[in-house]
Design goal:
Elements (H helix, E strand, L loop, with lengths): L10 H13 L3 E4 L2 E4 L1 H9 L15 E6 L6 H13 L3 E4 L2 E4 L5 H9 L6 E6 L11
Antiparallel strand pairs: 1-2, 3-5, 3-6, 4-5
Length: about 140
């Protein structure tokens, strides 16, 4: 029995995320329903989503993942966001994410291969301060 690690987006945060995905032509809205575009499916197909069984187990330690990737590398930024989501990391602010599992070693190697390490900071959080978990 562990702590609930779910995160609830505010309605405004969720709307901003949907708007960004729509501007990037990854999703579309028709007749009030959101759906993924063929371009979005292509991007997801190219992402290296890992199965949950391949992920390091959650250990209850909060990790803060912060990045500042230039606009010219927006495809890498998108890839990074999709990877973080697949690891169960949650958005805190525009380029700040929190997760409760170590990141896979192959993901860290991918960051090196994509020349992204200089744009990324990863912290383990021992005292959460104002970072709080919300119960479902």
């Amino acid at each position: 029995m562990g702590m609930d690690k779910s995160y609830k987006f505010s309605r405004q945060s969720f709307a901003v995320i949907l708007s960004r995905l729509q501007k990037q032509k990854l999703i579309t809205r028709q007749s009030g329903k959101w759906s993924i575009t063929s371009f979005g499916k292509k991007i997801i197909g190219e992402s290296k989503f890992r199965q949950n069984s391949e992920l390091p187990p959650e250990d209850g330690k909060a990790r803060l993942f912060i990045f500042d990737i230039p606009e010219r590398d927006r495809k890498k930024r998108l890839w990074l966001r999709l990877e973080l989501i697949s690891y169960g990391y949650k958005l805190l602010q525009k380029s700040a994410w929190v997760g409760y599992r170590p990141l896979p070693k192959d993901f860290l190697r991918d960051l090196e291969d994509f020349n992204l390490r200089s744009h990324i900071h990863i912290f383990s959080i021992h005292h959460k301060g104002t970072l709080k978990e919300e119960n479902s």
